[in-house]
Amino acid sequence: MNKTLFRRRGRHTLAILLLLLPALPPRVEAQLNYVTNNGVIIITGFTGPATTLIIPDTINGFPVGLIASQALRSCTNLTHITIPSSVTNIGTQAFTQCDSLQAFTVDASNPIFRSVDGVLFDKNQTVLIQYPGGKPGTYEIPNGLINLGVGPFAFSTGLTGVIIPKTVTALGSFTFYTCPNLSAVHFRGDAPAYGTGALDFDPEPIVYYLPGTMGWGPTYAWHPTALWKPLLRVGDSKFGAQTNQFGFTIDWASDDQDAEYYYVSAWDVELAKLQDDSCRSVYWHTDSVHSARPRYWRSV
């Protein structure tokens, strides 16, 4: 009787313990679809609920060398993609419509590609291959970039503005195709050529250009244009009265300088002027009796 009771109690105790244990989620493996061609793995697709994709260097002993065109299209769960050193070829729009994607990371030893601030470039950083579709805010393209490729910003739901350096001489096809929150595109150089659908299906962004640049009219790629003027920052910590001085910062519309910080002593300023016909100059008219600075000081 005692042994039988002990066994029953043991079974009951085990059942209670199992009920008290937290339920473990089923293990689901992310699935890369691929083919093998001449001993090289080509990534052709991806399925699964994973938010992070780390592409391996090898699969079944073969190097992963290529990501096919549109291979990871519409992988809406992905927020981060890591590309190994073995990948030396990426097809067009391989990552398009990944609208949760925040960043790429490329292995530093990759000879063809690199990532900077989460954005995918070629190794020399002259071609922008893909902007992460969910990365928010305004993005300033690094100076020296030449080629924007095919659709590098297409379907970027997080992009609200972009600043394009003067080194870019053409926008490829579908460069900013269907960016629903894009409101401003700033150009530092002359009006570049543009391909099919470069700014199509965007919510009427304003295209800004610098004074003195060439080729601009009332519209660009069927979107309205406007002169890009200096902007006085009034919300940062440098604006306003300081100890015996007044300070402010200007986001400066020039091709070589983004912002300048100015301060002037309270006792030696007669006149400050922040405008001229080109909206590019700042003049300080100072009292030379109380200041060692020249009577007129200019920044352009």
Give the terminus-to-terminus CA distance.
100 Å
Please give the number of β-strands: 26
Number of domains: 2
Structural class: mainly beta
> Helical content, roughly?
under 10%
Radius of gyration: 28 Å
Compose a concise summary of this entry.
The chain has one helix spanning about 1-20, and strands at about 30-35, 40-45, 50-55, 60, 60-65, 80-85, 90, 105, 115, 120, 130, 135-140, 160-165, 170, 185, 195, 205-210, 220, 225, 230-235, 240, 245-250, 260-265, 270-275, 280-285, 295-300.
Verbal overview:
This protein has 300 residues and is mostly beta strands. The protein has two domains: 31-227, Ribonuclease Inhibitor (Leucine-rich repeat, LRR (right-handed beta-alpha superhelix)); 231-299, no CATH class. The protein is built from one helix and 26 strands. It has one helix spanning 2-20, and strands at residues 31-37, 40-47, 52-54, 58-59, 62-67, 80-83, 89-90, 103-106, 113-116, 119-122, 128-130, 137-140, 159-164, 170-171, 184-187, 193-194, 206-209, 219-220, 223-227, 231-233, 240-242, 245-251, 259-265, 269-273, 282-286, 296-299. The strands form seven sheets. The protein has a six-stranded mixed sheet with strand order 12-13-15-17-19-18, with no helix packed on it. It is globular. Mean pLDDT is 77; it is low at 2-29 and 255-300.
